[in-house]
Request: fold
Amino acid sequence: MASSRSLKSSSLSFSSQRLLTLAQQLSQYKPPPCSSEDDDNEERIIEEATGKVVSQLGFQESATPITQNPENFKPKRAAVLICLFEGDAGELRVILTKRSSRMSTHSGEVSLPGGKSEEGDKDDAETATREAQEEIGLDPSLVNIVTLLEPFLSKHLLRVVPVIGILYDKKAFKPTPNAAEVDEVFDAPLEMFIKDENRTEEESEWMGEKYLIHHFEYETEKKKKYVIWGLTSGVLIRAASLVYRRPPAFLEQNPKFKFPEAVDKNTVMR
Reply:
């Protein structure tokens, strides 16, 4: 559930009526129940060296029922921020980052701001906005949190909660990337993630279950090119489907995994 401060949209100044309408629409969304709500037993979970949420794949936990020993599947929680704003042409856009080339893992990959929950975080919205502030200097007071999506599972079996927020004053946000974590901050049109344009897919398999990994190519007005894929593309496909109220124009093919009997630090989906 979104934090209490996030639902007070009437007290905030939106840049357009469209954003206000969108906030009201999304605040009514109720994600489906998860397959598991236990977040303890963290010693079983992969700890990426950087503590950030980066994955080669992503899929909705509600679409991937745990059919084998679910009591042993207790992933650690994380959150990412889907920060939407209105572009100059009136289109909805989302803020993305390119990870630092100096990172020891997944360097140079595109991701949403976010990371693992910390003890002082009161909810997923605070995790996502805290991480966004640390990574790209986004002041949490500028973001109106309107809803949460169903959790996704990363390839390292992190439970990642996407948090949707609206940036009501884009000009007030001056990106200040944390050089240790982020090389670049950019934005892309949200609708591209449900269009079958500039998209490729690859089929992968784990424990006999096949699924698709979607890759989206995006070129900015300054001719900079990015590839958005894996967990990030999976989350944005779901967010765009919800915002635009229509399914993607391509097959998602989410898997139904049978998880191993025990999840330990060596468990990775490939």
In short: Residues 4-38+53-244 form a domain with the Nucleoside Triphosphate Pyrophosphohydrolase fold (CATH 3.90.79.10). The mean pLDDT is 79. The chain has three helices and twelve strands.
